[in-house]
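REQUEST FORM: STRUCTURE PREDICTION
Request ID: SP-0412
Submitted by: Lab K.M.
Chain count: 1
Length (residues): 470
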Amino acid sequence: MDYISTRHDPDAGHRPVSFEAALLAGLAPDGGLYMPVSWPQLAPADIAQMAGQPFAAVAQRVLAPFCGDTFTGDELAKICDTAFASFTHPATTPLVQVDDEDWVLELFHGPTLAFKDVAMQVLGGMFETVLSRRQEKLTIVGATSGDTGGAAIEALKDRQGIEVFILHPEGRISAVQRRIMTTCPASNIHNIAIEGTFDDCQAIVKAMFADQDFVGTVNLGGVNSINWARIMVQAVYYFTAAVALGAPHRAISFVVPTGNFGDIFAGFVAHKMGLPVGKLGVATNQNNIVHRVLATGDYYPDTVTPTASPSMDIQVASNFERLLYEEADRDGAYVRNVMESLRADGGFTLRDDLVTAIGQRIVSADANEAETNDAMASHQQAINYAIDPHTAVGRVAARKLRARGQMTRPIVTLATAHPAKFPEAVSAATGLHPGLPAGMADLFDRAETIHRCDNNTNAVKDFIRTRVVQ
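STATUS: Completed
RESULT:
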């Protein structure tokens, strides 16, 4: 399987690259995001055979065609088995029924209590396998709105040949999210606090990838959902959830708390591979850039408003570019033009035909803070089930989409984080304080290590150079 940039220009000599190259690079040299040149197909019989299979076995089946010949079958099996052995639930990502035909897909049973663990644990094994074979070193840089950083650190700590630098917006993530990152004692882990928003952190990371001299000097790689490998692994739990509820014999709809658009695009990937999906529902908080563009076609980022669901406090949803590329018939020139408009003019307006095409598969709804709090309270009171604020946004959206007739049952809402990661928000809404799992009981007694950098790309580059350039 080869990969092409969403902004590829054949006249400029842009050519497809291997999975291994896309894995290590993260972002394409032209600033675009890598996409497979074609979608591997799973027949209904292939999907039906996933029923009752261990999560790791389904992962190997879904990932193999995307990886091409980068890994042998035994290597990929070992990577998947090792990755999911760290999860505390035997189903890895279990379903919980919360209403007649409503389910919650719990994605938080990994080592950092967030959905990012599912893909990141696999990514860590893939990086280490490839780098060992190539006898190379890699500098991983990522931006986090709360959960990506912790998951990346847990997956990559003490890995040979890898230095990890994670940027987070100071004061804009929960204390639990921060401490999961900053209390890691591994010498290859570097936490960087930036005064600003997640979008500022993400812009710095993208600027570093755009500097090809810097990329070459430090051998830069990425773990944000700009890295295709993250997306393809997240597609796995759409298959396991749908099969558990009757796929491929019936279509299942999913509602996804959405910030950077990666998790919901993974559902789109599963659909393109052959999984019967009813509708994909985008759930946003008050920072509702994706909801607005789906409703109006206007993609103009606004000021980020801090909310109780900080991982969704985003105004530049990077993976939306992948959806544009696919729905625009893989027109790299069109994507280059709209991304240039975003940079130069502060936004862009989609063509009417694209708004229509996207709306056939993807619908959306947003939730304000009062609605989010009400959802946490009502789930606790009605069924004694604690949900975190991001999952609460998803449940609000699911109810709205069903009420509007935009989505029919059965509906699965993705639970992206354990409620204990946001104890203040959950406690304020429910009156109950969610406790951390036993393995994290001493989290607030551990020493933190944080480096603070100015909110500009050169300051972060200088910090990285001092630690990786010999």
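NOTES: DSSP finds 20 helices and 16 strands in the chain.
Reviewed by: T.R.
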